[in-house]
Amino acid sequence: HQLARMFGLRPFDVGVAGLKDKIAVAEQTFSLPLPKADIEEVAQRIRTELLGELVWARRHANKLRRGHLLGNRFAILVRSEEIALEPDVSLARARAIGAQLVELGVPNFYGDQRLGDDGRNVAKGRERLTDGARDWLSNLHRTAWQAEMFNTWLVDRLEHGTSSTVLAGDVAKRLDNGALFDVEDAAVEAPRAARREITPTGPLFGSDMRRAKLEPGVHEERLLEASGIAWDVLERSRLMGSRRAARISLEEFACESAPDGLWLRFRLPKGSYATVVAREFTR
Question: What is the pTM of this model?
Answer without folding.
Answer: 0.87
